[in-house]
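Trying the structure run again after the queue cleared.
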Amino acid sequence: MFKELSFIVGAAALVAATGAQAHAVPPSRFLETAKPYAPYEFLIGDWYSKVPGENLTLHQQFRWGPGNAYIMYSTYLVAPGQPEQLHFEGLMVWNGKSKALDFLFAVQPPSGAEEKGTVTAGSDGTVVREVEMTDSSGKAEHFRQTFRKGDAGTVVTSLTQQTAKGWQASGPGDLVMERHQATADASR
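Done. Tokens:
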């Protein structure tokens, strides 16, 4: 019995060590030289915005994937006295052909809705997220979210929706994103 137990423990240790090594992400020479994510680095971190006219806070989180190979973007709704509620989450990945980030997000999991599209950075530093949101019935709507650097280390974001009359403001207009202090301290 002792021999069998020793074999099982030894095999489990070998599998665990092998599994950990199999998931290591080696540095990419392309990412080191081309730096396709450089225009988006200012967004990395935890950001909070008070929603005007509502007792609600928006928490947006941008974080690196392993080896800085992609950006994970999550947005949460925060109401006083309640836990954060995930609004959407997904990956933004560099597409060498389009020279943009492609993204796919699950919206209000497990609603069956998704957002997909592209994220680009303009020459003025403005980041634009072009969104096609599809609900669980297949109905699609189009949105555009912008991010631009604001004063004192803030970021200003806004959302518009494509309508029959063109692009219209969606939501409260410009929201000022303030970096969570712990995130700001860690990035220094």
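The longest strand covers residues 85-95. Worth checking whether this holds up in the mutant runs.
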